[in-house]
Design brief:
The protein is of the alpha/beta class and 399 residues long. It has two domains: 318 residues, Aldolase class I (TIM Barrel, Alpha-Beta Barrel); 61 residues, no CATH class. It is 43% helix and 11% strand. A nine-stranded mixed β-sheet has the order 6-5-4-3-2-1-7-8-9, sandwiched between helices. Helix 6 links the parallel strand 5 and strand 6. Helix 6 runs parallel beside helix 7 and helix 12 crosses helix 13.
């Protein structure tokens, strides 16, 4: 086996461990709403590109000191966070990025990375393998660079080949459509290239500075439909973007946003915001962010939700819908666009799981057994509340 490249084989074998980590995240989300599911951290605002539509970068900010980034990771772990996504700016510009990713894995949290891919090479990819990175995502906007975006397939294709050859982590390519993208069919070509390399595929719709989107043209909607057919039929919460079907037609989505609670965006200054496009509230330092803040923001109604395009926030909301309205949400997720699947039409495996965890007299036993099997531990807030029930409230200091 001398000279054989084992990375693609390791990536396939590692998929089992990745699905297990995702199952643990899902089980923890079903058990409790008292922890963040996804936190988004920014180690540097600086970027090596200047895409015309982007409002999340500059070309001068220094990287956040590694010690501070590690403290933020530790604080997110204390809040019970299950996924931490690193982006920027361009996160690969941070000189201690590998140590930050490794610290996330040390806490048993899923680390993911969003990059423009320009700084990737075989040696850098192998270093990322050593950190235990779970997933890497690259958004590609066009086939050739233009004055709107330099994130083109022409420039990045060699990097994609290096990823296919050397990466042991999961790779996802986000093909982008929307305002500013001159040739919508570029997204379909990009998605086909990603599929040929064995990568995951998602679609992104370019939004304005507040995370909102204009309705797509018929041509753009057709491209989205064609890309959807390239995806594997098995549902993945990391690839959920059914909400885009409505946005593409200019139809608002009816849902409850839990940003600031189940999804946290922590800027380079260490402040917690709803998301990248709603920076400024609640703007509380992460070191002081409490379970009371999580509970308040869980219930806060956000006026920007009907036309929101922020995929991560929608994904976390789906998990909460499953916990609160499981049967209804399962039918919604597995129904084709514009249709409605009936319970008897669900796949046999789904019907069995629904019976075990929702319909069986022993559903509580099955649920507890699954939690033990997946080694899902109580969240810090659950432990605090359990201790409070056993010992009573803390003393008031009075004699």
């Amino acid at each position: 086996m001398d000279g054989m490249n084992l990375a693609p084989m390791k990536r396939k074998l590692g998929a089992v461990a990745r699905r297990l980590r995702e199952a643990r995240m899902f089980a923890k989300a079903m058990r409790s709403a008292r922890h963040p599911i996804v936190a988004h951290i920014i180690p540097t605002r600086r970027c090596n590109l200047a895409c015309a539509y982007c409002n999340e970068y500059d070309n001068f900010s220094p990287p956040v000191p590694a010690e501070e980034m590690l403290r933020r990771v530790d604080r997110l772990a204390a809040l019970g966070t299950t996924i931490i996504t690193i982006s920027g700016g361009e996160p690969l510009l941070h000189p201690q990025l590998d140590g930050i990713i490794s610290r996330i894995r040390e806490h048993g949290i899923i680390p993911t990375l969003i990059t423009n891919g320009y700084l990737l090479n075989p040696e850098r990819i192998r270093r990322l393998n050593q950190t235990g990175l779970h997933q890497l995502q690259i958004s590609i906007d066009n086939l050739v660079p233009d004055d709107v975006s330099k994130k083109s397939l022409k420039v990045l294709d060699q990097r994609l080949c290096w990823l296919a050859e050397h990466a042991e982590f999961e790779i996802n390519i986000n093909a982008v459509v929307g305002s500013g993208i001159r040739n919508p069919e570029d997204a379909l070509t990009i998605a086909r290239r990603a599929a040929a390399l064995g990568f995951g595929i998602t679609t992104g719709v370019i939004h304005d500075g507040s995370g909102q989107v204009r309705p797509l043209s018929e041509h753009e909607r057709l491209v989205l439909d064609q890309i959807a057919r390239l995806r594997k039929p098995v549902f993945s919460f990391l690839r959920y973007n059914r909400f885009q079907d409505n946005l593409a037609r200019g139809v608002p989505n009816e849902w409850q946003c839990h940003a600031g609670s189940r999804y946290l965006y922590i800027c380079e200054e260490g402040l917690v915001h709803w998301c990248s496009q709603q920076r400024g509230y609640p703007a509380i330092p992460l070191e002081r962010y409490s379970f009371a803040d999580l509970e308040r923001e869980y219930a806060t109604v956000k006026s920007c939700t009907p036309f929101c395009t922020i995929n991560c926030v929608h994904q976390t909301a789906i998990l909460d819908q499953l916990r609160e309205r499981p049967r209804e949400t399962i039918l919604q997720l597995l129904s084709p666009p514009g249709g409605r699947v009936q319970p008897a039409e669900l796949p046999a495996s789904v019907r069995v799981l629904v019976w075990l965890f929702l319909g069986s007299r022993n559903r509580r036993w099955f649920s507890n057994a699954a939690l033990r099997l997946l080694k899902v531990k109580p969240t810090p807030e659950e432990l605090r509340m359990a201790n409070h029930r056993i010992q009573g409230p803390p003393p008031t200091g009075q004699d």
